[in-house]
Amino acid sequence: MDMVNTPAENFNKQLAEFIDGSPTPFHAVANIATLLLEAGFQVLSESEDWTLKQGEKYFVTRNGSSIIAFVAGSEDLAESGIRMAGAHTDSPCLMVKPQPEMLNNKYFQLGVEVYGGALLNPWFDRDLSLAGRLVYSDVSGQLKQKLVNFDEAIAIIPSLAIHLDRTANKDRTINSQTDIPPILMQAEETTDFRELLAQHFLSDNEKVMDYELCFYDVQGAAMVGLKKEFFAAARLDNLLSCFVATKALINADTVSTSVLVCNDHEEVGSVSSVGADGPFLESVVDRLCNELCPGERASNKARVLDGSLLISCDNAHAVHPNFADKHEAGHKPELNGGPVIKVNSNQRYATNGVTSSLFRQLCDQVDVPVQSFVTRTDLGCGSTIGPVTAAKLGIPTLDVGIPQLAMHSCRELTGALDPERLSRVLTRFFNQPGRLQITVGG
């Protein structure tokens, strides 16, 4: 596998820049917005009336952590439906608590809360930085917000030496309250964290009111392996899908109406005003239908959704060579083996035979291999925004993902070929004219 000057290599360089610059959902949405603006998309506000024009491209954000972008296609919306691709902007991490200051044996530490189902062991002995959103009061007393990032290693969570825990390699467990507060510095007395933030990020007479900050590993994305066939980075689940789908939408033509939705809070259940189980996407779809197919609104919306398709993109579990028995026989996705169709009869994934067939056809059309995954019956199965969105909108849906290893670690691994492949499939999906359907009957 020679990755030099290939479409995949060029794609991965852009992917690495995006992931390294997006340590939080707020930064991810800001960077997606920048890519869209550069591609000619126009900014909309939920608080204003929309006047949409066919052939134009738009996006809207909510809370700075979720974003929906769309192309208002020239085809009759009620006849052709909407092509949707979905992903999520959040990843498991360590969030700073509201009153986090700790002084233990002359070490200044911050209390953290585990966000999502994080794999905690890899967080030890990493060079950590801190990023997120500040809300502050300016000199006139007006509340404002800004994205912040220390951009360098300012903290670490040292492991306990094996000499002090001889059974560490056998049965060490992690107490998420006491074992993982990061060390920031040595100190004789505690430091007010809000004042520390103000010193670094605000001007004189500005005051930190509150924040949403998380630690992240400063090691950047990299191509690894003797043949550079692997791509390693933080937050591949699911910034990889966000970037892949964004690039596909940018490459979409203006014939079909195409939508990209990147929701926050998937890792904690999606139940929020900006999550997939909230009203954000449904609100945008309603406004799209009202603008692009006025008339009997309820009837038109039902027709639109019946002819639509949502591809929920969230990474899949590749087979681990050291733990291959954790996979169902016959369902062992490989890195660089192509995107994976994820199936679960208990509706943890929203795929059915019709939607999976449509995706397989798209892959065939652009010469991309496709794999499938179903979890072992005796193991639990994760979920995605797919079933949640399908239930909210009643839209035909399937779940797909790029295979990866080390899911929910602070550093994850995927194949170097697969991100560009999935973006190619999604571009074909967005550019597929006419109504997406399978004819009933023999």
TrEMBL record:
| InterPro entries given in the database record | Peptidase_M18 (IPR001948), Peptidase_M18_dom2 (IPR023358)
Q: Which domain of life is it from?
A: Bacteria
Q: Which Pfam families is this protein grouped with? A: Peptidase_M18 (PF02127)
Q: Which UniProt keywords apply?
A: Aminopeptidase, Hydrolase, Metal-binding, Metalloprotease, Protease, Zinc
Which Gene Ontology molecular function entries are recorded, alphabetically?
aminopeptidase activity; metallopeptidase activity; zinc ion binding
Keyword Metal-binding in annotation: yes
Q: Which GO terms describe its biological process?
A: proteolysis
Q: So which cofactors does this thing need? A: Zn(2+)
EC number(s) given by UniProt: 3.4.11.-
The EC category is: hydrolase
Q: What are the record's GO terms for cellular component? A: cytoplasm
Query: What is the similarity comment for this entry?
Result: Belongs to the peptidase M18 family.
Output this protein's name.
M18 family aminopeptidase
- Species of origin reads gamma proteobacterium HTCC2207
